[in-house]
Structures are given as structure tokens and as C-alpha cells.
Amino acid sequence: MKKAVKKILRIVQIPFIFLDFLRFRKNNTDKRFVAKISNAYPCIKDKTVKTGFDRHYVYHTSWAARVLKEINPKEHIDIASSLFFSSIVSAFIPIKFFDYRPADLELDNLETGSIDLTHLDFADDSIPSLSCMHTVEHIGLGRYGDSIDPQGDIKAAKELARVVSQGGSLLFVVPIGEKALIEFNAHRIYTYTQVLELFPDLELKEFSLIPEHSKQGGLIRNADPTLLEGEHYACGCFWFKKPGKN
């Protein structure tokens, strides 16, 4: 019902945008730009009271950047997380970014390549600083052209745990809620316990939570897992470490 109302409101805004255009053209006296209706590009979603943003993607990348500042690695490897994260952090830390669908992104301090998360081309215990964020929930659902595999997320998690080095860090992010759910073919939603079960040989250093709705807060560092009560599509940020030498 709410979606239908929003759609109606957007349609209703179209005449007002046309009136804004007429008002702009009437007052356009400096002649730097010629305003023609044929060049119109109506943006009917942006006249809002506040600036909207994707809570999951703004907050979880902000969390990861803060953790990386604390870790301060010589190099960081990211598997298929947000390109915004890798591209921005590469200004301060050398980043190697890999995805099933490689990104033709050219920036200094940033290397990109192709990889299959269920068969990582890295040796055991070889990566001191690793991230895979908002990715594993998709593996095996075919959404991005990968093979259908109900166990794809488990295989991916085993590979991440295998390649992170002893004493090394894994930053891991997935949708999380009070109940486990699969919304095919978009993603899986995990429980807190399910995520821990994906990495039985790693130690949890930090769990942070991004609640689904702003009234529950923004990024909650070192969150109490009981806050997941009543949550459907929240975002869980897990900082794991592999036991061993530092």
C-alpha cells in the first residue's frame, strides 16, 4: 500500500516539474544555458525533506573503513564488495579487488581481477587483511550469472576462512534478521547464529549492526545480538580473526 501511495505521489509531481520548468525559463536571464522542453530530464524522486540513502551500503562500508584504519594493513584484498569501498580506501591502502564479474576500474593503488568465490586462487593462510561484504548471501542463486548451488554460501565461507592468514582479519557482511529467510533470487537473510556457524574456526572480534529502520539507530558498533529481535532485513557486520600468530 505504501509503495502504491509513493508511486501516485511521484506521478502527481510531474505537472509541478513542468511548472518549475516554465518558471525557470521565464527567469533565465543570463543566457548561459538554453532551456528547452525537448532536453527535459524529469527527476521526480528527489524533492525530499531529507537526503535519502541506502542504509546497508552507506553504513557497512563506513564500518569497514573504520576497522581498516584500526588494522592499518600494508595491503588489503576485497572479494566482490562495494566498488565505492575499494575505490575510496585505495587512496590510503593498496587494494586488490576481485569479482566473479571483473570490474574495469582504473585507479592508482587499486588492482582488479576475476575470481570464483567458491574456489579462491590463494594459498592457505595467505591473506592478512580480507573483506567480503554483502556478497556471500548471493552465491549460488544465479543472480549474477553464477551456477545454481544451494550450498554456495557455505563453500564461499569455507574458502574465505581457508585463505585468511593466522592472526589475520576477515571483514564479513550479510543481511541479518531474527529469522532465516531466502528471498530468491535476490539474497539470503541469516540469523546471527548462522553467520557464526559459517566460520567455526574463526574468532569473532566485533559484531556491529545496522538496523533495518532509522528509528532503531544508525551503525551500532559492538552491538548486542538481542537487538535483532523483530528485525527482518538488517545488516550484520562481523570482524573475524583467525587464531594464531599476530
CATH topology call of the largest domain: Rossmann fold
CATH class of the largest domain: Alpha Beta
In total, the number of strands is: 9
From the alpha carbons, calculate the radius of gyration and give it in angstroms: 22 Å
Give the H and E element order. Answer: HHEHEEEHEEEHEE
- Largest sheet data: 7 strands, mixed
Q: What is the typical, i.e. mean, pLDDT?
A: 93
CATH superfamily of the largest domain: Vaccinia Virus protein VP39
Instruction: State the helix count.
Output: 5
Describe the structure.
The protein is of the alpha/beta class and 246 residues long. The protein folds into two domains: 2-39, no CATH class; 55-241, Rossmann fold. 28% of the residues lie in helices and 23% in strands. The chain contains five helices and nine strands; from the N terminus they run ααβαβββαβββαββ. The chain has helices at residues 2-27, 55-71, 83-89, 152-163, 192-198; strands at 76-79, 95-99, 110-114, 127-133, 164-176, 181-183, 187-189, 203-210, 234-241. The strands form two sheets. Strands 3-2-1-4-5-9-8 form a seven-stranded mixed sheet, sandwiched between helices. A hairpin with a 3-residue loop joins strand 6 and strand 7 (187-189). It starts with a helix and ends in a 5-residue tail after the last strand. 33% of the residues are buried. The model has no long low-confidence stretch (mean pLDDT 93).
